[in-house]
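Repro:
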Amino acid sequence: MSAIVATYNSEATGGVAECLGSLRAQKYPGRLEILVVDGGSTDGTLRIAEEAADKVLTNPRRTELGFGGGKDLGLQHASGELVAMVDADNRLMEPEYIDRMARPLAASERVVLTVPNPWIPPRGAEPSICRYFCLRESDLWHRWAEGGETREGWVEFRPPVGVVPNAGLLRRESLLQLGGWDFDTEVGQRLLGDRAAVFAWVETAHRFHREVLGYADLWRKMDRRMRTQVEEGTVKPAVQEEIQSLRRDPIAFLRTELAQPIAAAIRRSEPAYLHAVPVFLVTGMLFLARGLWRAPGGSAG
């Protein structure tokens, strides 16, 4: 088993020490190799990585413009038959996480990727906006897995187009045959090219994803992602789908992105869902500012 963590100045904002610590704490019955691929960090990320990882690689494709290149470089240097993609702002919540995530791949050739169950922090433990993103991700995975085949500890299903498997386990050789790792969404769609192939959502393996620390951090990350797409002349499939959904049926889009979270906030007495409103506004302003409505090649609609 190889675990790949792509980093760039991840000491404070990413919590890379917690991430690597949770990897070192894993009780996996086989060998677990930890690879860190760094894009030129200037903080304490490299010091932390050198203390915790088995290999530290340098990514010439600066990961401030996206972590795909770092993940692919790690894939080329990994020695395990299975590969765990773990982002630097992730924390594995159980020592059995890797073992539980590997079981569906051992049980069935149909399973091409296993994805974890989002862990929702208690109120007050993290910024409320971070809790909102955890709740939102959990709701999405529950919705996508509905109707799937339930196994012992996981659910096998085919996700909709645009699902982003930014963390999970998969077979290294299968991914190499498909051309490696580039955009997270495209990797998922290539893996599902065989109509018999499925993802496995592992309900018993919990991952905490500290997506943002606050609104300044949200703006910085969203702007970086969108700036990258403008500079590269491409729009990632998940963004394309979001824009196309808005153009096809703006009322349905607004109901999903705004009305449903507001209703959930009232129904569950969960104020974190109200963060959907400012998040939606931030995203919309950046779409307009970066000109993504007029994406190259007409991909925005």
